[in-house]
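Go through this chain.

——
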Amino acid sequence: MTASGKTENSKLAQVLTETQVQQFISDGFVKVEHAFSRELANEARTVFWKDLRAYGCVPDDPDTWTYPVIRLGMYDQKPVVAAANTTALRAAFDQLAGQGCWLPCRSVGTLPVRFPSPDDPGDTGWHVDASFDYEKSDFMDWRVNIRSRGRALLMLFLFTDVGEEDAPTRLRAGSHKDIARALVPAGEAGLSLRELIPHIADTSARPEVIATGSAGTVYLCHPFLVHSAQMHRGSEPRFLAQPPLLPRSEPWLGSLEQSNVPVARAISLALEEGM
């Protein structure tokens, strides 16, 4: 797909099946297994643990894991960047966001490390990630608009095995459609996170899916997907990075009705369903 959203099959590697692309459009996410190697995941965790030692955390000593969550981020070390730029992922980015429409990842954004704990981490509310107006001092004033200014994809990188008890991110399948319909009346200005609160509450009936998988799994999500963290009830720390896939230019989505880019198709179909 080109920046205009036209298909060029001779140039575009097909990493995701058509079924997976359709799942992304309908559910708002697709699970990519073995998106990067377990070896890269191991090397990246070594980098992360070096910073966790500043909090007194030691890999093999659960008595030192005294926080329910520690937020690290913005890593640009070689194994971390390599994990976000594998051939498979770059091809999947082309398929979902459009060839030539995105920038290679130079870091992995915020990295919440969740530890087994009975304490509430205080950050488990359902939300949509904002994508612009970051200069505002109150994060609730950050914004999202119908053409997803500032974000091509929401991504979840699993750097550890994540089972059902290991604080997997919760996803509301299909909730991106509800958010699209809420955003369209606001036009290019979009809505702030504060203004989105009642619309997020309206997605509560959507099916809940948990983002489990082995280290090296990546969930590629529509920018409007409603999601949340949860408490860690397992036994080992969970490492997950959540970088955005950034657009190469703005506006990165042109006509929603005419584009073949799956991010845009999901939005236009949601608006048609809401008529």
Summary: The two ends are 28 Å apart (CA to CA). The chain has one domain: 18-273. Residues 18-273 form a domain with the Jelly Rolls fold (CATH 2.60.120.620). The mean pLDDT is 94.
